[in-house]
Amino acid sequence: MLEILGHRVSERYLSTREFARVLGVSRVTVIKWIKAGRIVAYNVHGRWRIPYSEVERLLRGGDKK
After folding, report:
1. pLDDT of residue 63
2. What is the pTM of this model?
């Protein structure tokens, strides 16, 4: 379980590398998407963590929330 801003979060979070592997894109692309605001991600101790729900949203063809 991940803790963000003092709140325990039960959703699974992926690294940029894991996220890229699931979607079949490069890690650089994932970082560009984060910086462009295309996907929701949290910087936890200097590392990006992306909720698994973002994978599901992108696969459904959804735009950013």
Report:
1. 63
2. 0.77
